[in-house]
Amino acid sequence: MSQTYNDYNKEYEQCLSRVRSFLSSHARSLTTLKECGRLLSQARQCATAMENLAKESGDNFRLAQAKRLAEHEITPLSEEVECALRERESGEIVDRNRTELFAGSSYTAPNLDGNDEGQMMDALIRDSDDLLLESQALCAQSEQTGSSTLNSMGMQREQLHSANEHIRGARSTVERARGVLQDLNRKALRNKRFLYGVIAILIIANICVKIAIIKK
């Protein structure tokens, strides 16, 4: 059974919630960090599936939202996991602000001020414009393809009409040839009967001649 956009979104949120919970704890074992990497990979697959479904349904808002998931959510968490792995290998602790990634064991979406909201809306509008231009190009290409297909179908129709005329001519020729063969057959039958008659007359005449000779 195929999953819907909401199903993938739910799975995506669950993966990221678990990653944030793991990273918010102080005990970051190697096993935990590898699990975070696996969950992020699964979340990235869900984001890609969401993007494809939004593209198929023509939902520009969801499409722009899905495209931003990897950049604004998955990539920062992936960098945090990689940094934590490097810390375990080198033993050095890098001082960095993790507030935007997680708070406690649950994740709270950051509040956007007016400028951020305006920038996001401008980005969404630009993406929508790009999608609209791409859709117009696809429509023009589809129209050109349709016109070419119609021209090809017209040529094929003319070819079929010409082939039909040739078939009709060939059928008429076959009918005439059949009539000629039937006439020849009737003539041959008459000639055959005439020959049989002549042979019968000759046989009878021969018998009569032999009888006349015997009587003498």
Counting structural domains, the number is 2
* Secondary-structure element series: HHHH
Main beta-sheet strand count, sense and barrel state: none
Structural class: mainly alpha
The radius of gyration is: 46 Å
What percent of residues adopt helix (DSSP H or I)? Answer: over 70%
Coarse morphology: rod-shaped
Distance between the termini: 115 Å
Strand content: under 5%
Can you describe this structure?
The chain has 216 residues and is mainly α. It is 84% helix and 0% strand. The chain folds into 2 domains: 5-110; 113-187. The longest helix is centred in the C-terminal third of the chain and has 102 residues, at 114-215. It is rod-shaped and about 150 Å long.
Summarize the model shown.
By secondary structure, this protein is mainly alpha-helical.
Blueprint (SSEs and pairs):
Elements: H1 5-24, H2 30-57, H3 60-90, H4 114-215
Helix pairs in contact: 1-2, 1-3, 2-3, 3-4
Task: List descriptors.
single chain, 216 residues, 2 domains, 4 helices, mainly alpha
